[in-house]
Please model this.
Amino acid sequence: MERSSASLWRKIRPRYNLVGNECKNCNTGYFPPRVVCRNCGRKSKMAEKQFSGNGTVYSFTVIRTPPDTFKDEAPYTIGVIKLDEGPMVEGHVIDTGAKLRIGAKVKMAFRKMYVEDDEGLIHYHFKFEPL
Ligand SMILES: [Zn+2]
Model:
């Protein structure tokens, strides 16, 4: 069984594919998806929405003292990304060697997140990389 295959993780929706939803009444996007639009309440018309993964760095910080899960990755960057379609998403930002700045354009990338110590199971998740 190829349980550590990235292709299996890619198929897990919506968390790993940036599938949220959008209110067709006011065009506000949500990730994770919401049952009711914050703007429209009972007039909400929610529909599934696949976000592009393109966005802008809204804020970021460098983690130098990580939790055990990411102990081999430090230092690493966590960012709040404002997707082009509106929602804010938190995620790892891949270090490309370029100096990251607020306002930098990024895109989603599907990457290895961590490896479980006991069984070696590889976990994948979306991250963001500077363009
Ligand atoms: Zn709405």
Q: What stands out?
A: The helical segments are 6-10. DSSP finds one helix and eight strands in the chain.
